[in-house]
Here is the input.
Amino acid sequence: MSLSTHTTPSGFVLPSIHAAPPFFTKQPNPATEAIVIEQWSKLILSYARHRKLFMLRVDDAETPGGEWDEVLRNERINRRLPPTHLESILTAMVVKGVAAYEPAKQTRSVLLYWRLPEEWAEVLHQWATSTGQMNTIMTYYEITEPAVPSPLSNIPIPLLRKAIAILAKTNRAQVIAIADGEGVRFFAPAK
Amino acid sequence: MALKRFSTAIDGTIPVVALLYNDEELLGSQDTVGIYDGLQKSPRHQNGTVSITSHRLFYIDSSNPEAASFAIDLERISRTDYYAGLFTSSAKATLYLSAPATSTEQRPGGAYTQQDSADDRVLTSGGPGEAVGGGWECQVCAYKNPPGLSPGASRVCELCGVPRDALAPSTSTSSSDSPSHHVPLSHLSSSLPSPGLAGRSTPTPSTPNQIRSSKDPLPCPACTFLNHPSLRSCELCDTPLPRHQSSKRILKSAPVSRPGSPDGDDLEDGGEGVIKVSFRKGGDKPIYALLKRSLKGKAWGVWVATPISRADSTDPQNRSVGISAILRSVETTTAAREDTLQDALQDLEALRIKAKDMVRLAAELNDRLSQATSASSPSQNAYGLSEGGVMTPNQEPEEATFIRSSLTQLGLHMENSPVTLDMVRDERKWVEDLGRELGKVLQGSTSASSSGKDAKGLMSERGIIALDEAWGGWNRARGMALIPPSTFLQAIPLLPSYTSPPIHTRTFASGLRVLHRPEYGRSAFAARLAGFLVSRGEKSTLEIAMEMLNDPEYGDSYGGAVGGEKQTLSVALTQEMIEDAERDGDACRDDAGECAILGGGGVGGMGGAGEVKWYPNLFLGYAWDGMEVEETV
Here is the structure.
């Protein structure tokens, strides 16, 4: 049985395992299923990073036509990831810390940490430094929708808030309440 | 005359079938017959139709059916004669009639007693036929007995079996028991020269069930108002009065109704009479045969044979009524059933003994075969006459093999008699012997036996067998000395030491236990399955069950097809083994029903689209070969 990788229209190279029908079935054997989940989370995170996707919902597996179709479905072998299987994969990812339920207290949609919040904090601070935003007050909107596209473009507010909170802990940022919501001021790290 | 005394007038315009009781059956009829009353021709009954039923003999006059027709209860016929006819004399059947046995025994009571009881019979079953054949309510259990039963059957309550008149002080059936206060009255009445109605309605105060005098006021059945006897319906509530209708009928059938004064014949004949049926135009033989059959059948007495009444009749001393009678009848029925059951079990015992014989026969047959085979000389006398001299030496092994394989298929093949506990004192030794025996049953006798050729065992051509089948086969082979499952389980662990290749036990997750050869062990089978899947591609459970054994590379050691037939595993067993392999991580599944975009999903899927396919474990040792998205900051 020879399985091969496949390049999607979006330029993402799917692993060969994605062409194996058993990959989509929830395996009763826990050891086998652990491998399946591990491969799936790796695939999901890679694809999310490739497409700069932050959210994954169980609904994405239920209704075709979404931005996750290339991964959750494989038309070539007539297989799709059943929603229940996706949900268990998401649960495993949350447990592993590479995703978080968003909003909290439900299990059907997650925020994907293809960068961990700590990494995002670094990225954010680096971006602020490189674009000369030190010591100025910025709104969240200015960060998520910058005039010049940045790695932080379209970052979900909850994730941004987490990153800022991490920076605030190390005294590299300060959350400021402003007229139309919240703002942040970045500081250069204490020398 | 005898005819008058013993017959009952009927309305011949009504078809015979409509006159029958509910439990009566019409057997046959013959037309153009004449009746002799005694020795003389009865002038009124010279051309009519005779019908034989299970209970009665009907005569329907063809010229005057309304008035001249009658019926005679077969119960009265004590014997019959047949006269075949001579020249102008036609064939005749002579019926000797007698009053019921109970009253004829009462000879001392005098002729009038019998005549009287006979009268009672006529009255109760004739004129007030509605009263006897009609519905009545049991005095004990208040069950409303339906009308239309024969007098015999309606004499007791259908539900509780209590005789109808059990509580009445004196009845028609008990008339012979109390002749003292019965005879004078009836004597008086029967000798009264009152013609027609008056004489017919003999007033007997002690017999409430019988007819009242037509002069007595008639109680309405609905409102109990005492009406004038001549009224047709109740004065108060307009309910039709039963007595009136019957009296009208009696008027119509005057000749057979009780005459006002006794005939001289009655005195001469005592309680007996003779009637001849003359068959003017043949047909005598079938009708006479039917009559004899019907008399033999005694349908009127059949009700006596029912369990309920038997309970009463076997124990006349304790004859009682009501609940206790019902309870006793239930007890009797139970006892009878127990007897039947015990009889049945005795039959089973006999069968067991027969089974033993059969096993012995099989053993003998086997022995003879062995001897015959070993003695290669063509002396086949042991086979008996059936095959005897015509058999040639090269035919014989074929025959022997056939018989032997038949025995094996029946599970009757044992090299020697089965091991039983009384043969071996030591229990441990016993279990060991059992293990050895079971090994032989499963694998056949691999030792060089006298037969020369190895006998086939249950697992000779199969690598795996369910525990129940093995147990069943072993017990069949043992014949009489059956092994309980517990002992069977004790013997199983010893199997590997007595079998080669060793047979082991395997328990599946579902609890199914099997005996198997080494290649069906958990890991061995999983490895074979994995290899099979890798080389042959993904397979469904069914495909594995059908194909794997026949695969030259991954089948079992029997090498695929045996005897031209493809070997297959049962699907359920295959499923169990695959799932075990999956549990061990040697296979993984693809549930197309759940995961397919098209054709699968939903309810069942179409055809094979929804079934689970099995793959070798693709995930084991899989290394990521997808895109590594590098971080670009």
